[in-house]
Write a structure and sequence with these properties.
This protein is an alpha+beta fold and about 140 residues long. It has one domain: Hotdog Thioesterase (Thiol Ester Dehydrase, Chain A, Roll). It is built from three helices and seven strands. The protein has helices spanning about 25-40, 45-50, 125-135; strands at about 5-10, 55, 60-65, 75-80, 90-95, 105-110, 115. Strands 1-4-5-6-3 form a five-stranded antiparallel β-sheet, with helices on one face. It has a two-stranded antiparallel ribbon with strand order 2-7.
C-alpha cells in the first residue's frame, strides 16, 4: 500500500562523478536524502520542523541496489515513498531513474526517532504519523 510519495529531479553535478564521468556510488545515498527531505517539505512537514520540535531522525540503516550508472550531463529523477505509518522507525523507499526512464538504483533508508535532548529513542511524532496517515 502506497502512503506518501514524491518525485524530485536533479542534474548530475561534476563533483559527483569519477574520472570516467560516472556518478560515484556514495552519491546515491545523498540522492535518497535529497528526495526524502523534498518529500517531507512538499507534504508540509520539513524535517527541520520535526527537529525544532525536539525529535531527531538518525539513520539506522541504508540499502542500495545499483542497476545502471548515472553519468555527467544526466538528470536523475528521485522517487521517494513511505508505505506505512511509522511507530518506532520510518522506512523510506527510493528509486532513482535517469532522464530516459532507465532505473539506476533502488534502496531503502530506515530512520529512528530520538529525543533531541536526552538522545533516547522515542515514538514517531504524532504530527508526522498523522500526516502520513492522512495521505491514505
Amino acid at each position: 500500500m502506497l502512503i506518501m510519495k514524491s518525485e524530485l529531479e536533479l542534474a548530475v553535478r561534476y563533483y559527483e562523478t569519477d574520472q570516467m564521468g560516472i556518478v560515484h556510488h556514495s552519491n546515491y545515498v545523498r540522492y535518497f536524502e535529497c528526495g526524502r527531505s523534498d518529500m517531507m517539505a512538499k507534504h508540509g512537514l520539513p524535517i527541520e520542523v520535526i527537529e525544532r520540535e525536539g525529535v531527531m531522525l538518525p539513520v539506522v540503516s541504508v540499502e542500495a541496489k545499483y542497476r545502471n550508472s548515472a553519468k555527467m550531463g544526466d538528470t536523475v529523477r528521485i522517487v521517494s515513498r513511505i508505505d506505512k505509518v511509522p511507530m518506532a522507525k520510518l522506512e523510506v523507499n527510493n528509486e532513482i531513474y535517469n532522464q530516459d526512464g532507465l532505473l539506476l538504483c533502488t534502496g531503502k533508508v530506515v530512520l529512528g526517532f530520538i529525543d533531541a535532548v536526552t538522545r533516547h529513542p522515542v515514538r514517531c511524532p504524532k504530527k508526522l504519523a498523522d500526516l502520513i496517515a492522512e495521505t491514505l
